[in-house]
Design goal:
- Helix 3 packs across helix 4 and helix 7 packs across helix 8.
- By secondary structure, this protein is of the alpha/beta class.
- Strand 8, helix 6 and strand 9 form a beta-alpha-beta unit.
- The chain has 10 helices and 10 strands.
- It has one domain: TIM Barrel (Alpha-Beta Barrel), CATH 3.20.20.100.
- The termini are far apart.
- It is globular.
- The structure holds NADPH dihydro-nicotinamide-adenine-dinucleotide phosphate (NDP).
């Protein structure tokens, strides 16, 4: 069976570099999709309070027959819960909904720089959760370098990861460099640009030379850059396809050609401007 490399986070916790993302997986389809992912071999699931499908992830873990310790589960704090007391309660609710007594990784989903709660105060609540041992690692998501700097300088725990949008059309060189400078692992969300990468003739041409699909090439590019990825699919063949990326290697030339596709194209909101509360 394909073996997925682990990345060691800055607190010594290991995370499988390839996982399965469940944003936009309907709650009633989440258990089945996650079970398919486990059958294929994924052992890392990326969910969030905002996705409304934590319950299905927890059920899949229990039905899979895997031990809790064999799977790495991430969830994220929803935007309405940035007040520290709310963050603590929302974390408890996540554990309850998932049916777990700990999370492997818990993130602040968005910095929300324009709301009246400072994300550094929210971060301190996550530090308390981490100190309690109920999250093995804590991190942030969608933090721009300026946001990350504040958390590093004003907090006591350096985030283990920063989960940001990264794909061939948005290579995020500056944000990835800032993460690396602080010892924060980059998690690349929407690694397939929500499906857009498969339409790139450049990626398709490289894929042909490796007898692989464009999606596999885009994911492999991210793996070779050292980022952590978790493509989403509700299609069993694609869940499998996205896992089969460890039996080939992109050349330096291939890597350069894909990186040059960068056009600063976001599929999601700009974190500096996004202050949406559900
Ligand atoms: P992806 O970049 O993973 O793309 C998913 C889309 O691509 C779906 O439409 C899927 O279709 C399609 N697809 C999947 N595999 C293939 C394939 N092999 N060939 C062709 N098409 C394919 O998008 P996401 O936005 O879901 O990102 C992945 C994960 O990142 C999320 O699930 C979530 O965990 C995380 N994320 C985090 C965010 C954050 O703010 N922290 C924001 C956005 C995402 P289908 O399902 O129909 O097969």
């Amino acid at each position: 069976m394909t073996s997925v490399p682990n990345i060691t986070l800055n607190n010594g916790i290991e995370i499988p570099q390839l996982g399965f993302g469940v944003w936009q997986v309907r709650p009633n389809e989440t258990k089945a999709a996650t079970l398919t992912a486990f059958e294929v071999g994924y052992r890392h699931i990326d969910t969030a309070q905002m996705y409304g499908n934590e319950q299905g992830v927890g059920e899949a873990v229990r039905e899979s027959g895997l031990d809790r310790g064999e799977v790495f589960i991430t969830s994220k704090l929803n935007n309405g819960f940035h007040q520290p007391d709310d963050a603590l309660k929302a974390f408890d609710t996540s554990l309850e909904t998932l049916g777990f007594d700990y999370l492997d990784l818990f993130l602040i989903h968005w910095p929300l720089p324009g709301i009246d709660v400072d994300f550094v105060d929210t971060w301190k609540a996550l530090e308390d959760i981490y100190a309690s041992g109920r999250a093995k690692a804590i991190g942030v998501s969608n933090f721009q370098p300026s946001h990350l700097r504040r958390v590093v300088q004003e907090g006591t725990v350096v985030p283990a990861v920063n989960q940001i949008e990264v794909h061939p059309f948005l290579t995020q060189d500056e944000a990835r460099a800032a993460n690396a400078e602080y010892g924060v692992a980059t998690e690349a969300w929407s690694p397939l640009a929500q499906g857009l990468v498969v339409e790139s003739p450049v990626i398709a041409a490289i894929a042909k030379t490796h007898d692989k699909s464009p999606a596999q090439v885009a994911l492999r590019w991210q793996i070779q850059r050292g980022d952590i990825v978790f493509p989403k699919s509700v299609t069993a063949e694609r869940i499998r396809e996205n896992f089969e990326i460890f039996d080939f290697e992109l050349s330096e030339a291939d890597m350069g050609v894909i990186t040059a596709l960068d056009k600063g194209q976001r599929t999601g909101p700009n974190p500096d401007e996004f202050n949406w509360i559900p």
